[in-house]
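tool_call: predict_structure(chain=1)
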Amino acid sequence: MRLDDGSRMTRECHVRICERLEVKLLRPTRYFGMKAHVGVDSKTKMIHSVVATAANVADSTVLPELLHGEETKVWGDQAYRGQTEAMQEVAPRAQDLTHKQYRYKDRIDETQRAKNRTKSRVRSKVEHVFGVMKLKFGFVKVRYRGLKKNANRLFATCALVNLFLVRKKLLYSAA
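tool_result:
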């Protein structure tokens, strides 16, 4: 290998340059992820509570923060399975309608699978809120570094989603 001035590079010099490049190129890449946990009323599709956490936080740990206490039914996927005690502490009248396990070893319980599928129809109303959030307001990726700034953006977007979902009711009530 030759240097800019035309002279040959010594082995020691070559090793030092390679070590510097290796450290520079092999730096650990840092990623930032965030989860938006949303509590939605199943009848009106309105967001009533929002919690922003780091991406490595499990869904079941934030369940008490998503409940407001006046719920009669709590719908959720299998991430919220086994959280009946936490639900009863916050919302004593709430009925636990989260998905139950339907597969065990090599068996599939078809009746429980059908019940879970029926529950998914109600749960899809929450997914509609996320569709509006992503497609209408562009909340697909986090924009800032840090949970606080992205959570602020999430809360503002959720307020806009609520306004978007009731826009027709607001227009007809004003007229």
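agent: The first strand starts at residue 34 and ends at 40. Proceeding to next step.
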